[in-house]
Amino acid sequence: MADDKHVLTVNIVTPDGLVYNHHATMVVVRSTDGDIGIMANHEPIVAPLQIGEVRVRRVDKPGHEDRIAVNGGFMENKDSVTSIVADSAERARDIDLTRAEAARERAERRIEAAKKEKNTDDLLRAQVALQRAMNRINVKKSI
């Protein structure tokens, strides 16, 4: 492995279990305040996450980034371990693009229906569903 003082452990956990666990030189997450890049020996930090892409530069694959679609949650970094606890997460290689595009179309229809009915609760839920679907689509297409 690369020089241990320059190595970061990145793990992503959802209610369904461990989704991702690798050694990295850097991880970039989308927090509610913007993107945050973390490298080994970064100061301890806890940050809430938006629906967005997590990018991981793995030690064993220089020049390559793993991409993971994360749907909210939070990130903690301490002692060169970055842990992400997410509502749901899916690695780019595991995303079914056809299913993600169908989810986008359903969300768009729900948005239109909620607007016609002036149902703000349904509208907000449908907008979040659309964000999640678009995140999955964008992560899949980025590989």
Automatic annotation (TrEMBL):
Keywords: ATP synthesis, Cell membrane, CF(1), Coiled coil, Hydrogen ion transport, Ion transport, Membrane, Transport. NCBIfam families: ATP_synt_epsi (TIGR01216), PRK00571.1-3 (NF001846). Residues 8-89 form the ATP synthase F1 complex delta/epsilon subunit N-terminal domain. PANTHER family: ATP SYNTHASE DELTA/EPSILON CHAIN (PTHR13822), ATP SYNTHASE EPSILON CHAIN, CHLOROPLASTIC (PTHR13822:SF10). F-type ATPases have 2 components, CF(1) - the catalytic core - and CF(0) - the membrane proton channel. CF(1) has five subunits: alpha(3), beta(3), gamma(1), delta(1), epsilon(1). CF(0) has three main subunits: a, b and c. Belongs to the ATPase epsilon chain family. InterPro entries: ATP_F1_dsu/esu_C_sf, ATP_synth_F1_dsu/esu, ATP_synth_F1_dsu/esu_N, ATP_synth_F1_esu_C, ATPsynth_dsu/esu_N. Residues 94-140 form the ATP synthase epsilon subunit C-terminal domain. This is ATP synthase epsilon chain. Its main location: membrane. It is a peripheral membrane protein. It is found in: Cell membrane. Produces ATP from ADP in the presence of a proton gradient across the membrane. Residues 97-124 form a coiled coil.
